[in-house]
Design brief:
Helix content of chain B: 25-40%
Largest sheet of chain A: 9 strands, mixed
Structural class of chain B: alpha+beta
CATH topology of the domain at 2-135 in chain B: MutS, DNA mismatch repair protein, domain I
Helix content of chain A: 40-55%
Number of strands of chain A: 29
Radius of gyration of chain A: 35 Å
Distance between the termini of chain B: 78 Å
Strand content of chain A: 5-15%
Number of strands of chain B: 24
CATH architecture of the domain at 2-135 in chain B: 3-Layer(aba) Sandwich
Number of helices of chain B: 13
CATH class of the domain at 2-135 in chain B: Alpha Beta
Shape of chain B: elongated
Largest sheet of chain B: 5 strands, mixed
Largest interface: A-B, 66 and 54 residues
Strand order of the largest sheet of chain B: 5-6-1-7-8
Number of helices of chain A: 54
Oligomer: heterodimer
Radius of gyration of chain B: 33 Å
Shape of chain A: globular
Chain lengths: 1273, 499
């Protein structure tokens, strides 16, 4: 039977030149009955895995390939006019003109795939980003296993033929000969017909060429979208590529919409009399038999001692680690678990993988970089013993199978957090260790979402940026499809004409009498009636009915709550309405209430009746989820034994020294690539620095692994929500929960971390859990079979593992199915996947005798995880950091403050808030002072006594950047002999410079290893420190030596430097050579006050500035023209609010007093209470409070409620604003830095909130305008 | 010395013509090179100020209307305002780099009411231009300028007593003294918030820190301002006014007067080495109203004929509601006269001004839209791939340019497509493949031979005028021409033919 295989097809992964995703193309190809389909994106195989997966599922032979950009020599002897019209004429980097051509390569074998990937890699790595290309020489070595087609009209042959209007084929003959030789005659001449005369002219010239060389010729349709209507999105993408509006594009857009997938019948009609071109497509498709399943990448071999296998070596390491972790506490249970895990790891051949991860962690440890595994790896004893994770899975009874199981038959996912400042060193280590040919990062495809799609759609349609902004502000943040539905008005006719024409031909291309007889009206109707609906339309209708019915049931039983639920309900109602009324003619589009769309468009000053405006929704929908560009995954690394570029193309990333593969994380599993996530975590930097500071200041070495996590004083802080700066539990929502949850043991922290997440919140799990914990409601279980699973969390599912176990126990899922559920929960498109699983779960629970209503409730709770729920092991890993940071903050507040200030920007609060909080906890904070401060914040002993004070570093002065830092540090570190003291390598930076010295100048402070972070050349010193250290009275064992890293380092590493203190303002000005603006900022921030001690404190900054201005213009040294001038008596002293204002303006914080302090005398008589006073009041009291707004939040899960945090000189208070009140005074609440709030105090379980009733703006003139709050992030 | 701060433009906000509110009551800003150069008071209240990037200004004020800085227009308006102020004092100097500000000499007015009278007169004149114009009188320009910012000037002119400049300035905020921004910021940071505080500094100390510029600012702070208003000369008016003996309902008599007046004015202009860039015609109507319109040639010229043709075109399209009682012809904009040096031996050299004059005559004869030229447009739709656009001025292209690039294409003759204004419906019979065989058009049956196609063209789907057609090029032996047919959702149509 005759057939056709489409061998030339572009997906959205031909970035900005393909309008359909691979799945849609496969779906359409199946509907058209194609023999096979090839995916041939431009220099890209980013869609290959999705394409291959979809094709395999659909039973369609899916060929892989790419259309390569090939630079060939420019033909000689061309007239200038001919050169001008050649579309592919370019100049190379060497200024030699070349012809840029396209060449289609299809993969026949594994070797061919490797060659294709290598060619794409070379094309990408050897040329600037966005301009991939290869030369014929590069092509020559990599054609084995590839079958070539001569390409589209931009191919070498067609371009040459187009030169002389087809009359001069000599050059084309030579070109075809060259290509045939390169590919050893595995080449066919590609012909197309998009109903354009110029193409037919080319084809007429190419067929004789093919015959002359005795080569086959083949028909393709050079597909760029699945259906004719995809032309809209394609035109838009092309316009975006040119950075032009559609009106400006003119003939740069294709002349018609013929570049869609076509079936055999339609093409046979076009190529009547030349059917051999169609038959050739089948023959070529059959020989290109390579499929991605044949790709079996291996991990690099880990270098092992002679005669030792990977399994044995891993076992040895685990054994040693087990001894270290448990020592005498090790039991038979530990042994059993270790043996179980090692056996499974060996059976799955993953020992090498664990060794590689261990090696990375070992490197980090060696370099003093704090790291900790997170995610499901924390379920593994092996990971724990290897030091990859820090929580004991046996102690916490974590489920190993969540991490690794034989049934899953896939590599485990190990995610490791590193101190964020040092992570780049770890990444570069991996590149160096395994070579850039074997290692690269995973990419992330940045796709169009609601807002970006609507902005770009507005741009190409020529709407103003303001109009685009209005539309974007009302768009669905995530889904362009939902946004399109909300924007849809009217039924534009133009595209229907296009589709009508195409559909009429597709339906019956051999119906001339019909065309003759048809009048304009019945032409459209008949064509529409006959147009194939396709399987997707049917599937969508059926699916929509099922989901709509399910969700409507849920709505009626009032089981779904939360914002997400409202969206689902809205969608369900819409879907239900659509299903009832039947699909609109010609399609299955969702059509929400058009009046909403009209109102939205009117708000953007757009006319809903304008056809251009009506097209907006089509464009937005067309862009839905299409990739815009490629970014770097947050931390995923892949390693292979064979060169990675033979598995997947590698390309340069936007960041220097990074390379990425063309596949994203979801593409790795199907091809068996193993990913290791190397992530950065700011709090680990804080903990790392803090540990180093504590070791320096107090001689105490703390091993995080040995913390018993049971210190009740730490839990007291947590119960009081005294957690500003503490990892994960410092947000307003967490602080509101802590006094209710009252954590008293480590597992409580695990629950706390998992509880305040969008998943549990939307699943309505938070309040039931808290009520049960408080004994306010009995602990019950939805079904007796779930009790063992939910017992630890009082009958409320909180963790992903519980979702899996519930599915197994209640719905009869197999472990494999439950794992699919888990994946759906974690997948970024999980809402859709979860909807698919919904039906299966409900049926399963029904079969197990669970009532439908109950089943629905259970499903809703699990479904909530789709919006983000933590696995228990992950929560446990984070809980450890929660405890560690809370512990350090409690016992070592100055060191903790210093570390967190040096790690900024990070966390929830601005430095000013962190300092205010630390001051309330007795930490002494000293101002920036050029005679004592370094760039970073440092610790200074107070007359040799502990605790030390925190000395603000020069980095706290706003406006001083990296250049200023370099100048200051260079000025500090003298290279000559004039200095008076030596400093270790890191003396200039790490914040503990002052700890070993006296309260004198910088001179004495930089001694010994007064560095903040364990000089990596100083391991012996660190060890001595550890050995000599005092063990803190927390019941911990003496710690092992750890040598945390250090912040930035001035001067060459390893070389001792002499430091020369600054002796005067002119000395600083001339040595640092800072510009006038930076110097003025330092003076106004009080950094020169030490040089003007004879002046009254409130006048020092101005006197210092007076001198700075003089020194900045005066020549240095003997060339000085004037003697030092006197200070004019008219320079006034700062008033107190002025001083605070200058502090906030220049440093974002003030040690001279909170802005509210200056208003207190006015406010107190008017009944405005301070934060401290409010804590003495009772629930229900009317209260007035004023403060700096340091946090504004409007969480998506809070139904429009707004939460403010106000800070005054005595503490912070949270304010709750109802949606109605917010709407009334939104601008005031959102913009005013200093707010006076009147309302009613709510006190519940020690949590104080003000339910606001009215607001007023205050003005203190004390720097409040300079405060950068945490606003709606 | 008097300083006036008045706006130079009485125009209203675009789109608000006819309303009584002044443009300063709207948030407007003039922009230059991506930055705000001037902002209205209303815009300034929202935080928009000069020097601010346009994007930032938009962020400050969503309703901000941005207009481009038009240097020529502003210069023209300043000149007009200066001319008006000259009615009050012969010493009028527009302040350089401060459009909207003038120094006006106030000395020697004792016998005609003194400075106070002058200031009042100036204020009256200035408020014609801006409702909140301010006038202040002082010994030094710097003092007068600072004094204009006093709120008292909103009630009337502010007088700084002779010899009282320094005292007055001592209380003035430092922000009102013209100086480098860096110096101003430093003084504020030092707590020196008034001009007086700055003036008390030791000049040596000032020079040490801020150099000569700082010293200059310090001198200003002490009222020591070397600037003085100087005598200015107004251009002779280049205008002629005529009264008609009897009011005329038509333009005929006006045309004669315009022609004669232009003869006179242009001759004088040419004698001064100037060319006319704009001519205004003001008609005084019998009912007392005056209406003015401007005729601006494509390029400045000192020739009567093309100028007159422009004026005639203007008058021809001008309908008035009342008989015309008089007319004023005024050359409002001039430029130094210049002429292209033509090569008399080059046969292709043409005088563009002569061409402009010729085109103007054609326009007058055939109608306003009669002079057009063909243009290529970038569209797949045949009827939109070319068009006609009105010609404002003669092209600079030489005849060689025009002929060289067209007419042939690589030695192959190009067929010209003649497209029908509106494609005509036809009836077509086709073979079983859909290829046209014969055509019924205007009651004739035409056999089609040598059929080429189809060519599918579609696009501009975002327009109301989107199209999706299938074109065929068919030869008709009876007509002897290649016909261009297409079918779309509306059926078959004849679009044109090639010849």
């Amino acid at each position: 039977m005759p057939g056709y295989a489409e061998l030339h097809c572009h997906s959205t992964f031909s970035l900005l030149d393909g309008a359909s995703d691979p799945e849609r193309l496969v779906e359409r190809a199946v509907a058209l009955g194609l023999h096979a389909l090839a995916l041939t994106d431009h220099d890209d195989v980013g869609g290959a895995v999705r394409f291959a997966t979809a094709a395999r599922s659909a039973g369609l032979p899916g060929l892989l390939g790419a259309e390569l950009t090939v630079d060939v020599p420019m033909p000689s002897g061309l007239a200038p006019a001919q050169l001008e019209v050649m579309p592919g004429r370019v100049c190379g980097e060497d200024r030699v003109p070349r012809l840029r051509t396209h060449l289609l390569c299809l993969v026949e074998s594994r070797e061919g795939w490797g060659n294709l990937c290598t060619l794409i890699t070379r094309a990408r790595l050897d040329h600037p980003r966005g301009q991939p290309r290869v030369t014929l020489d590069q092509l020559a070595g990599h054609t084995a296993g590839l079958f070539a087609l001569t390409g589209c009209p931009r191919g070498w042959l067609p371009q040459l033929l187009a030169l002389g209007g087809g009359g001069e084929p000599r050059r084309a003959h030579e070109a075809l000969g060259t290509l045939a030789e390169l590919f050893d005659r595995r080449i066919a001449v590609e012909c197309w017909d998009h109903a354009l005369p110029e193409e037919r002219t080319l084809v007429r010239a190419m067929l004789p060429l093919a015959r002359a060389h005795d080569l086959p010729w083949v028909v393709t349709n050079d597909v760029h979208y699945a259906r004719a209507r995809g032309r809209i999105a394609h035109d838009v993408l092309v316009a975006l590529r040119h950075g032009a509006t559609l009106d400006e594009m003119g003939t740069r857009l294709r002349p018609n919409g013929e570049w869609h997938l076509k079936g055999y019948a339609q093409l046979a009609a076009r190529w009547s009399g030349h059917e051999e071109g169609l038959a050739t497509s089948i023959a070529i498709a059959d020989r290109c038999a390579f499929r991605l399943e044949a790709l079996k990448p291996r991990l690099p071999h880990f270098p092992l001692p002679a005669g030792v296998s990977e399994d044995e070596y891993l076992e040895r390491l685990v054994e040693a680690g087990a001894q270290e972790r448990w020592g005498w506490r090790r039991t038979a249970r530990h042994d059993r678990q270790i043996a179980h895990e090692l056996t499974l790891i060996a059976k799955l051949g993953l020992s090498g993988y664990f060794l590689i991860v261990w090696d990375i962690v070992r490197f980090a440890r060696r370099e003093g970089i704090l790291c900790q595994g997170r995610g499901s790896a924390a379920n593994s004893v092996v990971c724990y013993c290897l030091g990859i994770t820090a929580v004991d899975p046996i102690k916490l009874e974590l489920l190993f199978e969540r991490f690794l199981s034989e049934e899953r038959a896939e590599a485990p996912d190990i995610d490791i957090d590193f101190a964020h400042r040092e992570r780049e060193r770890v990444l570069q280590y991996v590149y160096t260790r395994y070579g850039r040919e074997h290692a690269a990062m995973v990419c992330e495809h940045i796709t169009w979402r609601g807002r970006s799609a609507v902005r770009d759609a507005a741009r190409v349609l020529g709407f103003s940026p303001e109009q685009a902004g209005v539309l974007a502000s009302f768009s669905d943040r995530f889904s362009a499809r939902n946004t399109a539905a909300a924007l849809r008005v009217g039924t534009p006719g133009a595209a229907m004409d296009e589709e009508t024409l195409a559909a009429a031909q597709e339906a019956n291309p051999f119906a001339p009498e019909r065309a003759d007889a048809m009048g304009p009206a019945n032409y459209s109707k008949r064509a529409l009636r006959d147009a194939p609906q396709g399987i997707e339309a049917k599937a969508q209708r059926t699916g929509a009915r099922v989901v709509a019915a399910t969700l409507l049931d849920a709505v009626s039983s009032d089981l779904i709550v939360g914002t997400h639920a409202s969206t689902l309900i809205k969608e369900a109602r819409e879907s239900h309405r659509k299903v009832r009324s039947g699909p609109p003619e010609g399609g299955t589009r969702t059509r929400p209430d058009p009046t909403d769309a009209t109102s939205l468009l009117t708000r953007a000053r757009l006319d809903p009746n304008d056809p251009r405006v009506q097209r907006l929704a089509d464009i937005v929908e067309g862009l839905d989820a299409a990739p815009r560009h490629r970014g770097i995954h947050v931390g995923g690394f892949v390693l292979t034994e064979e060169p990675l570029c033979t598995v997947v193309p590698i390309e340069p990333a936007s960041m220097e020294d990074r390379t990425v593969i063309q596949w994203e994380k979801d593409d790795l599993d199907p091809v068996g690539l193993v990913k290791i996530d190397l992530l950065g975590l700011g709090m680990l930097t804080v903990v790392q620095d803090c540990l180093a500071y504590v070791r320096r200041t107090r001689g105490v070495a703390i091993d995080l692994g040995q913390l018993d996590c049971a210190d009740q004083a730490v839990y007291d802080d947590l119960c009081r929500a005294d957690t500003i700066g503490v990892f994960q539990v410092e947000s307003r929502a967490q602080m509101n929960t802590l006094p209710r949850l009252k954590p008293r043991c480590f597992y409580d922290l695990v629950v706390e971390v998992a509880l305040i997440r969008p998943g549990p919140i939307q699943g309505d799990m938070v309040h039931p859990y808290l009520r049960r914990r408080a004994g306010l409601e009995p602990v019950t279980y939805p079904h007796p079979s779930l009790e063992p699973i939910l017992k630890r969390t009082m009958g409320v599912p909180l963790f992903q593992e519980q979702g899996m176990q519930v599915a197994i126990a209640a719905a009869g899922f197999t472990p494999g199915e439950s794992d699919l559920l888990r994946k759906a929960m974690g997948h970024k498109r999980s809402a859709e996947r979860m909807a698919d699983i919904c039906q299966k779960m409900l049926r399963g629970m029904e079969a197990n005798g669970i009532a439908p209503e109950l089943a629905q409730r259970i499903y809703n709770q699990i479904n909530a995880f789709a919006d983000y729920g933590f696995p228990e092991s992950h929560a446990a890993s984070f809980a450890l950091i929660v405890y560690a940071s809370a512990y350090l903050r409690h016992y070592y507040a100055p060191e903790f403050l210093c570390a967190i200030l040096n790690a900024q920007p990070m966390g929830f609060y601005a430095p000013g808030t962190l300092i205010e909080d630390a001051k309330r906890h007795g930490v002494k904070v000293l101002p920036v002072d050029v005679t004592r401060s370094l760039w970073d914040h440092t610790l200074e002993p107070q007359g040799g006594r502990l605790p030390p004070a925190v000395r603000l570093g020069m980095r706290s002065v706003l406006g001083l950047g990296g250049n200023a830092r370099l100048k200051i540090e260079t000025a500090m570190v003298a290279t000559g002999a004039q200095g008076t003291a030596t400093a270790s390598t890191t003396a200039g930076t790490a914040g503990t410079a002052g700890t070993a010295g006296t309260a004198g100048t910088q001179t004495g402070d930089f001694t010994e290893n007064g560095n903040g972070g364990g000089n990596r050349n100083n391991d012996s010193n660190d060890s001595n420190d550890s050995n000599d250290s005092n063990e803190h009275n927390t019941g911990r064992e003496p710690s092992r030596s750890d040598s945390p890293g250090t912040p930035g380092t001035p001067g060459a590493p390893g070389a001792p430097h002499r430091l020369t203190p600054f002796t005067s303002i002119p000395d600083f000005v001339h040595r640092s050579a800072l510009d006038r603006r930076a110097l003025r900022a330092l003076a106004e921030a009080g950094a020169f006050d030490a040089f003007v001690q004879d002046e009254p404190p409130a006048r020092r900054r101005r006197v210092a500035l007076w001198r700075v201005l003089e020194a900045e213009r005066a020549p240095a040294g003997p060339l000085a023209l004037f003697p030092e001038s006197h200070v004019p008596p008219h320079l006034p002293a700062y008033a107190a609010p002025e001083l605070t204002e200058a502090d906030y303006r220049l440093t974002g914080l003030s040690l001279n007093g909170h802005p509210m302090r200056h208003l207190r005398t006015l406010l107190a008589p008017n009944g405005v209470r301070s934060a401290r006073e409010i804590l003495t009041l009772r629930d229900g009291e009317a209260v007035a409070h004023a403060g700096l707004v340091i946090c504004r939040q409007r969480p998506g899960t809070a139904k429009g409620f707004v939460f403010l945090t106000l800070e005054d000189e005595t503490g912070t208070i949270n304010v709750v604003v109802t949606p109605q009140r917010f709407e009334r005074q939104a601008l005031l609440i959102s913009r005013t830095p200093l707010l006076l709030v009147r309302g009613v105090l709510q006190v519940e379980s020690g949590v104080y909130n003000i339910r606001a009733k009215s607001f007023a703006a205050l003005k203190a003139g004390a720097g409040e305008d300079s405060v950068k709050g945490h606003n709606y992030r | 010395m008097a300083a006036g701060d008045a706006s130079h433009n009485r125009s209203t906000r675009p789109g608000t013509e006819g309303r009584t509110d002044h443009w300063d009551a709207h948030p407007l800003a003039l922009t230059d090179a991506g930055r705000v150069r001037l902002a209205t008071t209303t815009a300034a209240r929202t935080g928009v100020h000069a020097g601010m990037p346009v994007a930032q200004a938009r962020a400050k004020c969503a309703a901000l209307t941005l207009l481009p800085w038009d240097a020529a227009r502003i210069t023209r308006e300043i000149a007009r305002a200066s001319a008006a102020f000259l009615a009050a004092s012969p010493q009028v100097v527009p302040v350089r780099a401060h459009p909207g500000m003038w120094w006006v000499g106030a000395g020697g007015f004792d016998r005609i009411g003194g400075e106070r009278q002058l200031a009042t007169t100036l204020l009256t004149l200035a408020r014609v231009w801006h409702p909140q114009a301010r006038v202040a009188v002082a010994d030094a320009c710097v003092t007068a300028q600072a004094a204009t910012w006093s709120t008292r000037t909103l009630q009337g002119p502010l007088h700084v007593a002779p010899g009282g400049d320094r005292d007055y300035l001592s209380r003035v905020p430092i922000t009102l003294l013209a100086m480098d921004e860096d110096l101003r910021e430093a003084l504020v940071a030092l707590g020196l918030r008034t001009v007086g505080a700055f003036a008390t500094l030791d000049p040596l100390e000032v020079e040490r820190r801020w150099g000569p510029d700082g010293l200059a600012a310090w001198r200003l702070a002490r009222g020591d301002d070397p600037r003085r208003a100087t005598l200015a000369r107004s251009d002779d008016p280049r205008a002629v006014t005529h009264e008609l003996a009897t009011a005329s309902p038509t333009m005929e008599p006006v045309l004669f007067l315009v022609r004669a007046s232009l003869d006179h004015l242009v001759r004088a202009l040419a004698a001064d080495g100037l060319a006319a860039a704009a001519v205004t015609l003001t008609l005084r109507l019998e009912d007392g109203r005056r209406v003015t319109r401007e005729a601006r040639p494509a390029r400045p010229m000192a020739r009567v004929v093309p100028l007159f043709e422009r004026c005639r075109a203007l008058l021809d399209t001008w309908t008035v509601e009342s008989p015309i009682a008089g007319v004023e012809i005024r050359i409002t904009d001039t430029t130094p006269s210049s002429a292209e040096q033509g090569d008399l031996l080059a046969p292709t050299w043409r005088d563009p001004a002569a061409a402009d004059a010729a085109l103007a005559r054609l326009r007058n004869t055939l109608g306003a839209g009669a002079v057009v030229r063909p243009t290529l447009r970038d569209s797949h739709a045949p009827e939109r791939a070319g068009g006609w656009e009105e010609v404002e001025e003669a092209a600079h292209a030489t005849p060689t340019d025009v002929l060289g690039a067209r007419g042939t294409s690589g030695g192959v003759a190009v067929l010209a497509a003649r497209l029908l204004e509106s494609p005509e419906p036809i009836t077509i019979t086709t073979d079983k493949r859909g290829t046209p065989l014969q055509m019924f058009w205007r009651a004739r049956r035409l056999a089609l031979t040598r059929v080429h196609g189809p060519e599918r063209l579609s696009g501009e789907w975002w327009h109301a005028a989107s199209f999706a057609r299938e074109y065929w090029r068919c030869e008709s032996e009876e007509l002897g021409q290649d016909l261009l047919l297409y079918r779309d959702a509306g059926g078959w149509r004849l679009h044109g033919w090639y010849d």
